[in-house]
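[job 0412] stage=complex_fold ligand=ribulose-5-phosphate status=START
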Amino acid sequence: MTTLSQDELKTLVGQAALKYVVEGEIVGVGTGSTVNKFIEALASMKDRIKGAVSSSEASTQKLEALGIPVFDSNEVPELAVYIDGADEIDGKGYMVKGGGAALTREKIVAAQSRQFICIADESKRVAVLGAFPLPVEVVPMATQRIVAQFAAMGGQASVRMKDGKPLVTDNGQHIVDVKGLKIEDPLAFESQVNQWPGVVTVGVFAHQKASVCLLGTAQGVKTLTY
Ligand code: 5RP
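[job 0412] stage=complex_fold status=DONE, emitting structure tokens
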């Protein structure tokens, strides 16, 4: 048996997601290397969809370069499906996201979608969320207080840097990445951190969880439903 690389697994799940795209409609599109594979596959049916709502400037550029029209999320009251990757997904479809710093727009598009289809290779599957550093988008003036609040929970938060400066998101904010957390109750954790002043978005997706995960494994694409 030949072993598929992580990149090949991403291609497989990106292609498998096409069957969830509703013809004649607008599809919600996430961000990241797995989603990039989905976008490439989506180009093959671009004449059969109206277009996409995108969760980042990076995905918008890629969609438009392939001739797929991108709509403002405010123009579209509801989407049938949102297709996105994850940094971690547990046995209930709860996820950690934001490795690509797009978590806020991802959560917005997920919230306007009836179904979240997660596409991931099997390295993303975990029993308990928290092994991947948790991304949190923050208003810069609140950073140090938020770092201290995570420290009080046993987490070590640090500001994500790019080219020697804090990374600036598509929304003009910063990201802190928190190590050392074990998120046993994702719903409660998301609600709690959401209430801290200065938190724009916490990268736990529990209220906007996946209903399906297309998981790339050595045995092929497995469909997990939650
Ligand atoms: C971006 C995300 C991505 O979905 C997540 O980081 C997974 O990315 P990849 O498919 O490149 O592993 O949340 O903010």
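The chain has a mean pLDDT of 97.
[job 0412] exit 0
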